[in-house]
Amino acid sequence: MFPKVVQVIPTRDYSVYVYFEDGKIVCYDMRSMLKKEVFWPLKDISVFMDACTVLNDTLAWDIQGNRDSASCLDIAPDTLYELPYIEEQIG
Known about the structure:
- This protein is an alpha+beta fold.
- The protein has one domain (5-81).
- The protein has helices at 45-51, 77-81; strands spanning 5-10, 15-20, 25-29, 52-55, 58-61, 73-74.
- The strands form two sheets. A three-stranded antiparallel sheet has the order 1-2-3.
- The longest helix has 7 residues, at 45-51.
């Protein structure tokens, strides 16, 4: 079982800082995922920034704004946790 995501901070370059409950921090670059049709709504930077959240203990985008985890776009937590640890970049 992988640690839970507790905080996400999106950036205007389509990356997201992801904070895990065990203290690990990773930076997930979404640019390549935007080529997949399911993620096309996130090409709008305001949607990418505003809908970014934590749902089901992982990075997600609540496109409809109803906190329904079944209709969100999300990234598997194990995919995120496999990324290399980074130092805190946001002050």
